[in-house]
Sequence to fold (255 residues):
Amino acid sequence: MKGQQQALDRGSILIKMLQVLANCEMAATRLLAPLLSLPEISFQDSNDLALIISDEARHGWLCRQKLLEIGGEAALPHAAAIEFLQPPNNLIKAFNRPLKTLADGVAFTAVMDLSADFLIGNFLDPQLRKLAKQLLADESRHIGFGWTRIPKSYLESPSQTEDLLAEWVELALDNFGRDYSRFDRLKLEYGLTRYPVARVKRSFAASVWGKIRKASEEASRITGEKVVILHPVVLNPYLKEFPAIRKRSAAVASA
Fold:
């Protein structure tokens, strides 16, 4: 009932944020691990993916350690991730979506790790900033794994790559949560995050579109012909504050 909802204090908000982050990091290891057994995966891709999986597991451990430091509870990582991500919770849809192919894993790391970079990079609280610095040191490599492989993935299967990018971008936008919520306002009021989630989400959308353009340019360089990877339509509402990008993306989509 209204009025009976317990008010969240700064400490409980911090704990909730870290619990979500820890579970997401551990869930990523569960999603990526099956890709290592794909028969078509190369040694280099397998080696790079194994390193990413190891990073994600370490990130989950770091988040759990921070939880324990501030008085939160950290359950066993795998059990916590499974319980958190299964229905009826289903709080973050992206981590309930299995990865079936290497192209799927490439799109996942390209988009989801980029969204993590924006979310974690938005931390303002000193404790969170220290943790973020440790996590972000690896995220740039994870993002690079995905986006450097997008051109090749597109040239091998254009429609599949565009469909996967569109799907993962939509899931990543969901990963930010609602644009305006009480929880978002509280995070700002208590100095835990730097910007409202709506602003961070729009910046993420612009970054995705910029990377798709660069991937198109790289595919064009490889083939010697003009290649245009279509941007996901779901980006449109978030690009309104970037008129030049919005104008170009609309032109490309109609080409």
About this structure: Confidence is low (pLDDT under 50) at residues 1-6, 84-90. Residues 10-253 form a domain with the Ribonucleotide Reductase, subunit A fold (CATH 1.10.620.20). Residues 126-156 form the longest helix (31 residues).
